[in-house]
Amino acid sequence: xxFVPDTQTRRVALVTGGGRGIGRAVSEALARDGFxxxxxxxxxxxxxxxxxxxxxxxxxxGVECAACAADVSDSEAVDALFSFVxxxxxxxxxxxxxxxxxxxxxxxxxxxxxxxRVLAVNLRSVFLTCRRAAKIMMKQxxxxxxxxxxxxxxxxxxxxxxxxxxxxxxxxxxxxxxxxFGARHVTANAIAPGFIETDMTAELPEKVLAGATERIALxxxxxxxxxxxxxxFLASENAGxxxxxxxxxxxxxxx
Length: 255
Ligand SMILES: NC(=O)c1ccc[n+]([C@@H]2O[C@H](COP(=O)([O-])OP(=O)(O)OC[C@H]3O[C@@H](n4cnc5c(N)ncnc54)[C@H](O)[C@@H]3O)[C@@H](O)[C@H]2O)c1
Prior knowledge:
The chain is α/β, with parallel strands linked by helices. It is 48% helix and 15% strand. It has nine helices and seven strands.
């Protein structure tokens, strides 16, 4: 028998780094689907932007949205973020770990600091949020965890040892969460985007982008909205039998 959750109350989603790029599109797709959304951003400096996204989505879709600044690599800040969600929304049903950074460079020149920071923001954060979210979700016997990995975490990429390691780590962590909490109807999946048009890829030199486009079967970069549609599907009731998967969305780049 499929598990039928309580649908009387609006479900609540937390999107880390949800104020811009792919995260913003995910926040919007979930609000459109009727979730109340907590839009996380990295610092007080980015809070006004995240607050205006939250206000816009609340107005457009008639759901409750709020923004909360927290550096998700910091355990105390993640505690404060989860307290905010509990106080403001009273529950948590969907966690989207989207926050991520790059600090690219060849392995030989990569500093300890650049390695550690990327691992902390991209991977440690996922451990910190999953540990808290899984506790809530297992008690309510329903939950969706969606982690933003990358195709680079599957195939590697020259110049991205730190980033590739963090994204590969996310994949192992996601599969473990899926195994540990599946019996409580909590699913955990990773999304592995290829090249998506956002601020992150806008920083890349024209030559790199042209070379990448050539390797993509569909001959174009993806959009944040396309990644968000996948995240929204994974958050939905219809995705209830999908867990522990790494779902590529790369226009056929990894073929
Ligand atoms: N754009 C791509 O081509 C691509 C491809 C594969 C994977 N991804 C992944 O998708 C996710 C979103 O990427 P994007 O392209 O939208 O990038 P982006 O740089 O536009 O957005 C990243 C978001 O993460 C937030 N963030 C950064 N550090 C944070 C911290 N310490 N605490 C909380 N939030 C923090 C930022 O504020 C921002 O909202 C990332 O995890 C990225 O690795 C992107």
